[in-house]
Amino acid sequence: MSCVTHLNFEVKNMSSTYLKVTFFEAGGEFEVCDEWKYRVVSFAVSEIYHKGVKSARKLAEGSKTVYKLGLDLEGVGVDFMPGDTIGVLPRNDESLVEKIFIRLGVEAQADQPCELGVSPNSGKKNAVVPKHLPVRSTLRTIFLNHVDLHTPPKKLFLKSLLGFATGSDASRLTSLSSPQSPDYSDFIASNPSLLNVLETFPSLTPPISLLLEHLPPLQPRPYSICSSPLSHTLEITFDVTGLCTKFMEKQISSKNQIAFYFRKPGLFRLPNLANPVIMIATGTGIAPFRGFLQHWKLANEFGDVWLFYGCRFRDRDFLFKDEINELMCEGIVNRLNVAFSRESDSKKYIQSEIDKRGADFVDWVNRGARIYVCGDFRTVVKDVRTCVAKNLVKYGGLDEEKAEDFVKGDRFIVDTWN
């Protein structure tokens, strides 16, 4: 629809940008895009679902708050299995977006309809509007749902800001964006967000169009499903640490919907109990294994199952403790070893629990066990891989090269995050 009134909106130094932002009178006829068509949905095998929170339970609180969240499954026509993941589409914090608008002096235009296009005078060859930006929307919608406001800026972005800063700010930006900058690594080590950058350089007044050219897309966050489809529930587990988890925590109290989709399955799926299964997890890495165990119980399936779990405190963050102990009594789990890393009298890590039982561990491997590991790649997965390889050398008679081949092979399956 075109019966709208154009507003004059001067943007400083627009010639250095290739995007053009045209604002229209609020209240006029303006057909906005379906914004969900512009959301990034990596590895999607389903449509985007918008579902309310059906259940929520706090599993741990203190230095880390952990939730088990159940999403409404009505109308979801996807056959998922334990070990599968969903991608949750987060939303930026409204107060953060408002602070950015105020800092840029565009709060008055935040809710006005706008159209994104390519400036005919940009001089940029083959310029197009980035695929993650809806071409007809509002600044507020774009900044809330489509751009990443937290990823530290790349040098190219800092360089693009030079024409919009003065004095010492311009000098500092010149230094930071130079190819051999000695300060860039220290600058991004503090994980500066867009607002941090704007506050660090008070004279900086970049146009909205420039920011939209450089801000990366807001990415979905993957979460392992921690329930069995036989339970007729879709549950995930998360600790409240970042943008998406804080967003989901807010949805619990506000009772608003969460947008998510099902991701393409990988190798980390419900194993066949014809062979032994060894599961190794720390913290919320227990999530997919809880789904495995629940499924085996509901399907009345039994086999050789050994669970190693690491957490900080016995009574604070041993997730699904009662369930796991019950599954031990029922014979779903045959062996359970837990390491508590912050207990003052017995600080232990999961690798030491494996080392103590190295001979038995290798015996299970020799009987065809598949090893599943879920945890932080930088610490847990790396250390567990080294530990398993060491025990295969010590008790399995393998040389170091063959042990390394095993922990890189298809019987050592990893689900990890950074």
UniProtKB/TrEMBL annotation:
Top enzyme class: oxidoreductase
Cofactor(s) the protein requires to work: FAD
Gene Ontology BP terms: nitric oxide biosynthetic process; response to hormone
EC number from the UniProt entry: 1.6.2.4
GO molecular function, one term: NADPH-hemoprotein reductase activity
GO cellular-component term (any): cytosol
Domain FAD-binding FR-type: 46-271
InterPro entries with a match to the protein in the record: CysJ-like_FAD-binding, FAD-bd_FR_type, Flavoprot_Pyr_Nucl_cyt_Rdtase, FNR_nucleotide-bd, NADPH_Cyt_P450_Rdtase_alpha, OxRdtase_FAD/NAD-bd, Riboflavin_synthase-like_b-brl
Keyword entries, A-Z: FAD, Flavoprotein, Oxidoreductase
Protein name as catalogued: NADPH--hemoprotein reductase
